[in-house]
Write a structure and sequence with these properties.
It holds the Pfam family HODM_asu-like. The chain is α+β, with helices and mostly antiparallel strands. It is built from 13 helices and ten strands. A seven-stranded antiparallel beta sheet has the order 1-8-9-10-6-7-2. Strands 3-4-5 form a three-stranded antiparallel beta sheet, covered by helices on one side.
Length: 347
């Protein structure tokens, strides 16, 4: 295998780290020096070679450790993976999409051989060699959605379309930014977005739903979303708020650089072929302030965005209590120079 995987943790001693290459390919979410809600949807995949946008499903140095962390979370709380009975076919659609994509995009890591419904899947980083019958759940150790999402970075929601709306009727969610699959399962698009401040009044969700309902077969899209997290913890769920919530009060001027993380979600959308469900993968990337300020453009821009953001959004994004400490820290890296458009660091 050409890719090297980190031995790291996302809880306890928090040994998570980004290599210099991982920092440079980080999906920095701000394309200008200010932030406001937008639908910001574009075609996926597509982007510079080596970027997280190059392939359908990005695999990086954190892959094996993230799958280990998912296994821990599921052992503690099996309800992080749920699928209503009518969603099994969507699970098979998702399994096919991921296996075909990974085998094509990372042939040294994954392979898939198909002879009719007799499939042979090899996942080399996780040491998996499995033969099974496609559409026969009895030949897998878990349901199809759970089986493949235990091997794929990011959270997954499978959305069923009916009555002119999208309903979250299945999902695998272990690295979420303070929302609960167990609470949201069975809700429609507007119900699960209800906690987001101001966006409904601005018409953002009406536009987004209209767009998503029009996504057809073979069309794939993405958008970036972001929030802030203290410590590199993947599982910031409401169920475990008692574990990570108090960590917000541990930030000081001395430790903010390595304890405060920008949490970015690469959200993608795929219309599935048999079920007509919409797959909604949400891949989480974490970078500390120390990581981000190694790129001068990002250091200047992040300071300006967080300094000028609406206070209600700072609260919703999870950093209002530490905003002053963060902004003061970042100000030393902002020399007032102009920044270029776009999200990528300067060459």
């Amino acid at each position: 295998m050409t890719m090297q995987f980190n031995d790291e943790t996302f809880r306890g001693d928090y040994t998570y780290r980004n290599s210099p290459e991982a920092i440079r390919r980080f999906p920095f979410p701000f394309d200008r020096d200010s932030y406001a809600y937008s639908v910001n949807i574009e075609q996926h995949p597509g982007g510079p070679k080596g970027s997280p946008f190059e392939h359908m499903f990005d695999v990086d140095e954190h892959y094996v450790a993230e799958m280990r962390d998912r296994e821990i979370t599921l052992a503690e709380d099996p309800l992080r993976c749920q699928s209503l009975p009518h969603m099994e076919l969507a699970g098979w659609d998702l399994l096919e999409l991921i296996m075909v994509s990974k085998a094509r995009d990372y042939p040294d890591l994954f392979s898939l051989t198909r002879a009719g419904n007799d499939w042979h899947w090899i996942n080399r980083p996780m040491g998996i060699d499995k033969r099974f019958i496609f559409l026969d759940a009895a030949t897998l150790p878990y349901g199809p959605m759970e089986y493949i999402t235990r091997q794929t970075q990011g959270d997954f929601a499978l959305l069923h379309e009916r009555d002119g709306n999208l309903w979250m009727d299945a999902g695998m969610v272990t690295s979420q930014a303070d929302w609960s699959l167990d609470f949201d399962v069975g809700m429609n698009f507007f119900e699960w977005h209800a906690p987001v401040p101001k966006a409904r009044q601005m018409g953002v969700f009406d536009k987004a739903l209209k767009f998503l309902l029009a996504v057809g077969q073979g069309q794939h899209y993405r958008r970036l979303n972001w929030t802030m997290t203290v410590n590199p913890r993947l599982d910031t769920s409401p169920e475990n708020y008692h574990k990570w919530g108090p960590e917000k009060r541990t930030i000081t001027p001395e430790n903010v650089g390595h304890k405060q993380f920008l949490r970015v979600e690469l959200q993608t959308f795929f219309r599935l072929p048999r079920s007509h469900a919409l797959a909604f993968p949400i891949r989480c990337y974490l970078a500390s302030l120390d990581d981000l300020v190694t790129q001068p453009k990002w250091a200047r821009r992040l300071h300006r965005v967080l300094r000028d953001i609406d206070p209600d959004l700072a609260d919703y994004k999870g950093f209002a209590v530490n905003r002053d400490v963060i902004v003061n820290h970042l100000s030393q890296f902002d020399d007032g120079a102009p920044t270029s458009p776009g999200i990528f660091p300067e060459d």
